[in-house]
Design a protein that fits this description.
Layout (H helix, E strand, L loop, with lengths): L3 E2 L3 E3 L5 E3 L10 E2 L6 E10 L10 E4 L4 E6 L4 E6 L7 E7 L7 E10 L2 E8 L5 E8 L5 E9 L1 E6 L5 E6 L17 E6 L10 E2 L2 E4 L8 H7 L10 H4 L2 E6 L5 E6 L4 E6 L4 E7 L2 E3 L24 E3 L5 E6 L2 E7 L14 E3 L7 H4 L11 E3 L4 E2 L2 E2 L3 E3 L4 E5 L4 E4 L3 H5 L28 E9 L2 E8 L5 E5 L7 E6 L2 E2 L2 E2 L3 E7 L10 E6 L4 E9 L2
């Protein structure tokens, strides 16, 4: 694999740039000494009430210049005045229980022409959730719909006429008397009849579910789809996480994170037409290395006999040459710590084949977190499957990979002035996450400037945003990186990412807005184009 790198510019909390070391990717990278065409600078930020979890997903309304921020800690929606993006101020806090008596937290927000769509889970997350659409000007309820259990993400189609929600359907436990495992699904809601003068319209959600695949379980598993919840049907085991919609508004692509797969949905019929496995990344290949230990007291990015499960969180789509391409942030969430089931284990705690047994020391693979759900033959593990791939990937519309960033994200973050290598988002100890997902890419969005397409990838653990020119989907070019944490303070745990184009921006410049879950801060960055 050949990766293209430009100069690595790292930005500190003050927004000033520091020239970091140029990096090589597993000995296989071609380093381009050309300057970046795009830069990021932090303009301002806001600290929300509630601490951890108080800034997650964000969305901007151009007409009112308001920024809507999901506050998971307080089960509310914070509304910020973004007239001056350098100094956001709080205008209003809308509690979910004021909108729906049975509400838990809001999980996602999306906006189209003054309509604010919220994905709200029930207080009992295994029960049906709600879509609630507000008017941006005064937060009045325009319409509501009953949707599936644990709606985790909401998005509009490009024309604004349809809303789609990814209903994750997480279980509360497995195999216990009170266990409930809802089916995962995608809700499709026609909102073309809503207007800004509507009031409490009851909307009907169509459901794209996975029941039709229940009799295909063995074939799906054989293809690489992870279906492993104890006693679960295919429909129960699918856990939709994130949605992106094709430019023509006809097709939705939905990450099924824990299943290491993607669902393709025909929006008009509200039907899942295919489930596509992402497959596994071979970390034994040059350029696909990782630092596998938090106890080796060194940055040690190298190849290992490990397979990486992509398990992506966010997904974004864009078009080049009339073809749709998909970008995934390969985070790697596990089904862990559920009462009755936990799939995680450290390598050293497993019965291993002789070849793997020789690598079980803490300084080698012993500390690496892997799944117990696959890789064993007669109780002995002959293959190891790790969570996430510490990368982003680009796929075509059929789910075939055309690019993966290899080990570049760990290479890029090994010499940061404001954070230790593979530090967690809740501390600043070196190697803290080397044994488990590394920098943990979680968010991704794509922005277009002229003929250029740029991907912005948020790193949940070590923090910051990496930017690539993805105009050629098979050969992305690294552009820049910004990180505004300062050790164990600053912006920690980037979660939701939102792009504001220049023609809708309050200051006439393109903006990138990030909700930082751990620090409870919203950060506003200006995107500076150098051409």
């Amino acid at each position: 694999m050949k990766l293209n790198l430009k100069k690595t510019w790292v930005y500190g909390a003050c927004g000033l740039s520091l020239l970091a070391a140029l990096v090589a990717c597993g000995g296989s990278a071609a380093v381009e000494q050309t300057p970046s065409a795009l830069g990021l600078v932090k303009l301002g930020g806001f600290t929300h009430q509630g601490g951890e979890g108080s800034a997650e997903i964000t969305a901007y309304d151009a007409a009112s210049k308001k920024l809507f921020v999901v506050n998971g800690a307080l089960a509310s929606l914070d509304v910020l005045d973004l007239t001056n993006p350098a100094q956001p101020t709080l205008l209003k806090t809308v509690t979910m229980t004021s909108l729906w008596a049975g509400a838990g937290a809001a999980n996602s927000v999306a906006i189209h022409q003054g309509m604010v769509a919220l994905a709200v889970q029930a207080l009992d997350k295994t029960q049906p959730g709600r879509l609630i659409v507000l008017r941006a000007s005064d937060y009045a309820v325009l319409g509501t719909a009953v949707v599936g259990a644990l709606p985790d993400m909401v998005t509009f189609t490009p024309d604004g006429k349809t809303l789609l929600l990814a209903n994750e359907g997480e279980p509360n436990s497995y195999g216990l008397p009170d266990s409930v495992d809802p089916e995962g699904s995608i809700s499709v809601v026609d909102v073309s009849g809503l207007s800004l003068t509507s009031s409490n319209v009851v909307l009907t959600a169509k459901t794209a579910d996975f029941k039709a695949f229940n009799n295909q379980k063995d074939a799906l598993i054989a293809s690489g789809v992870r279906i492993f919840g104890p006693g679960a049907t295919v429909a129960q085991d699918m856990e939709p996480e994130y949605i992106t919609v094709s430019a023509d508004g006809k097709t939705a692509y939905v990450t099924l994170q824990e299943n290491n797969a993607m669902a393709i949905v025909d929006i008009a019929s509200a039907k899942v037409t295919a489930i596509k496995p992402f497959g596994y990344k071979d970390h034994s290949l040059a350029g696909n290395g990782l630092d596998a230990s938090d106890k080796d007291s060194a940055v040690n990015i190298k190849t290992w006999p490990v397979l990486g499960m992509y398990l992506p969180d966010a997904i974004a789509s864009y078009s080049v040459g009339g073809q749709t391409y998909l970008i995934t942030a390969n985070e790697g969430d596990a089904r862990a710590d559920w009462p009755g089931y936990n799939e995680e284990s450290r390598v050293k705690d497993l019965a291993l084949s002789p070849a793997l047994e020789a690598l079980k020391s803490d300084a080698q693979l012993g500390r690496l977190t892997v799944t117990k759900s696959q890789g064993a033959v007669n109780g002995v593990y002959e293959k190891l499957y790790a969570y996430g791939t510490r990368s982003f990937s680009i796929w075509n519309a059929q789910g075939q990979q055309v690019f993966d960033s290899g080990d570049q994200l760990e290479q890029l973050t090994k010499d940061l002035p404001q954070a230790k290598f593979n530090a967690s988002h809740s501390g600043n100890a070196q190697d803290d996450r080397s044994d488990n997902k590394g920098p943990e890419p979680e968010g991704v969005i794509v922005a277009q400037f002229g003929q250029k397409h740029y991907a912005f990838i948020g790193l949940e653990r070590v923090g910051g945003v990496v930017v690539y020119d993805v105009s050629n989907p098979t050969r992305p070019v690294y552009e820049t990186y910004i990180n505004t944490r300062n050790g164990a303070t600053g912006d920690l745990g980037p979660e939701g990412m939102h792009f504001v184009p220049a023609d809708k921006s309050p200051n006439g410049k393109p903006l990138l807005v990030i909700g930082n879950e751990i620090s409870g801060t919203t950060a506003i960055y200006q995107i500076n184009l150098k051409y």
